[in-house]
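Thread: Modeling a multi-component assembly for a lab meeting

Hi all, long-time lurker, first post. My supervisor asked me to bring a structural picture of a complex we are working on to next week's group meeting, and I have zero experience with this. I have the sequence lines for every component (669 residues in total). Could someone generate the structure of the whole assembly? Inputs are pasted exactly as I received them:
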Amino acid sequence: MMQFRLEKRREPSKVMLYATPVAAVVLTMIVGAIIFSAIGYDGVGAVREIFLTPLTNAFKWQDLGVKAAPLIIVGVGLSIAYRANVWNIGAEGQYIMGGLAATWVALATHGMGGWWTLPVMMLAGVAGGAAYAAIPALLRTRLNVNEILTSLMLTYASVQLIYYLVRAPWKDPMGMGFPQTRRFASEALLPNILPGTIVHAGVPIAVIVALVAWFIMSRSVFGYQMRVVGAAPHAARYGGFSENKTIWLALLVSGALAGLAGMLEVAGPFQRMVPGFPTNYGFTAIIVAFLGRLNPLGVIFAGIVMAITFVGGEVAQTTIGLSSSATGVFQAMMLFFLLAGDILVRYRLKRVAPQGEARA
Amino acid sequence: MTLELAIAILVTVVGASTPILIAAMGELIVEKSGVLNLGVEGMMLVGAIAAFVVLFTTGNHYLAILVAAAAGVATSLIFGFLTLSLSANQTATGLALTIFGTGFSALAGQGYSARPVTLLGPLFPSELAAHPIWRVLFGYSALVYFSFALVFSVWWFLKKTRAGLILRAVGENDLSAHSIGYSVVGVRYMAVMFGGAMAGIAGACFPLLLTPQWAERMTAGRGWIAVALVVFASWKPFRLLAGAYLFGLVMTMELYAKASGGPLSVIPAELWAAMPYLATIAVLVLISLRRDASTNAPACLGKPFLPSN
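Re: Modeling a multi-component assembly
Sure thing. I ran the full set together rather than chain by chain. Output:
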C-alpha cells in the first residue's frame, strides 16, 4: 500500500499559498453539491445558482459590484490587522458606527447640504469606525484585554444603539411609525456612476482602497512593520518596532475602513438608517480577508467570490426555494477548506515506500 | 423587597445563567488542554436547533438534550480535525465554526420558527417546591441540577484525578507531556469533544429552558460571553459559577427595573439589551487589573502542537 508522510517545507510554498484558496472554492462547490443533495436539497442546483448564475447572468453583475464593495473595503482593513496578528472581529460594529456617524451628519445638515456633505459624511464614517475600534485598542495596549472579545461585544452593543436611535431620537416623524430615519437629502446620497444601474461611487472607491492598501503594505515601512510584528514579534522588538503602536495602527486602520464601508452603505443602497442596516458584511469580511490570503489584491478577488455567493444565495432563494442561510453554510465551508489547505503551504506530501519494499 | 420577589429573582437568574455556565465549563476544559475554541457560539446554535427539532418531533426533552450533545460533539470534531490533525490556526478555525453553526442552524431550522414546544418542567414534584424557600432548592429543571453537578465534577476532575493532571500537563507543557508518552493530540481531541458536548447542551437550554421555540441566532452571543467568562474566572470552576450568576443577574435585571417602576425604569430597553455585552467588557477590564489575571492561563493556550519529529 502506498503511504504518505508530511514533510515540513523549508519555506512556505508560494504556489500552494495561492492555489489553496482556488482549491477551497472548487472543493466547496463539489462537496457542497454532495452534502446538500445528501440532506435532501437539490445540491447541484444550489451550487449552480449560488456560484454560477451570478456570473453567467450579465444582469446580476451590478449586484456583484454593489455587494463586493463593502466586503472588499472591510476585508482590506481586516487583512492588514490580521497580518499584524491583531484579531479585530468587531468590524461589523465599526461598520455600524461608521454608518451611524454618517447618518448623524446627513440628518444634522438636512436641507442645508451642499457638495461638501458627502465628504463630511465620509470623514464622519471613517472617524466613527476608527473611534469604535479605538476602544479595543486602548484596552489591549493599556490593560492587555483580549481584543477578540471586546471588539465582538461592542458589535452587539452597537446593534442596540441603532435600534435605540431609529426608535426614538432619529425616528422619521413622517415615517408612518416605522422605526427608521428620514430618507437622506440628495446631497447626502452617493451618486450612481453608471446611469441606469445601481452601481454607486462606493464600487470604484473599494478598488482604489484595495490598490492603495496593497501599495502601502508591500512598499512602505508601515506595511513592513505590520508584517514583521505579526510574523515575528520578537524580531520586531529588536528591530525597534513598537508592538503597542502596531496594535493601535491595526485596529484604527481596520476600524476606519469598516466605518467607511458603513458610510458608503447607508448613503448608497440604504439611503436612510434602518434597523436592518447590519447585514453581516463585517463578519463575512473575515472570510474575505482569509480567502484573499491577507493580501489586498487577493481581497478584491475574494470579495467578488463572496459577493457571488450572496447574490447567488438570493437567486437560489427565488428559483429553487433554498433558504438564504445556505449561503452562510457555503461561505463557512469555503473557510474550512482554506484552513485545512493551509497545511499544504507549510508541509509537502511525500510518498513513502512501505517498509518491506524499501529494502528491495 | 419581599422574600417572594427575591426568590423569584434568584430562580430566574439561575435559569438565565445555566446555558452560559454549561458552555463555559466545557470551554474551560478545552482551554485547560491548551486549545482555544472560539466556536462555542456556533456549537451552541447547532445544539439549540438539534434539541428543538428532536423535541418538536418526539416531545421527549431528555432525548433532545442527548441529541444536542451529540450534535455539539459532531460540530466540535470539525474544529478538532482542522486544528489538531491539520494544525490550522485556532482563532480563525473557531471563527469559521461560529459562522458555520450560525448558517447551518438557520438552514436546518427553516420552517421550524414560530412552532411552539413545551419547556422542560421542574425535576422534582411541585409539592416539594411549594414553599418559596424550598423553591430555591427544588424548583429547577434537570438541566440546572446538571450544571451544578458539572461545576463540581470539573473541579474534582481537574484537582483530584490522574486524568485531570494529564489534561493540565498537556495544556501547560505539551512537549514534556509528549516526551513522557502522553498523546497530546488525543487528549486535546477528548477535551474539544467534551467542550462540544457541553456547548450542545448549553444550546439545548434555549428552547428547553428559556424560550419554547426556535429563532435564528437565538443564543444571541451567549457563547461568546461564555468564552469571556473562562478568562474572567482565571480557569477556575467555582469562580466560573459565580461569574455566570453575575451575568444572569445582569441579563434579568431589566425585568425587575421595569416592574419596580423606580429610577432604573427610565433606562431604554436597548441599553438593557446591550448590558450583558458591556458588562462583559467591564468584567474583562476589572480582571486585567488583578495581578494573577493572565498568569493562570494554560501556557500552551492557542498554540498548535508541533513536535520536532
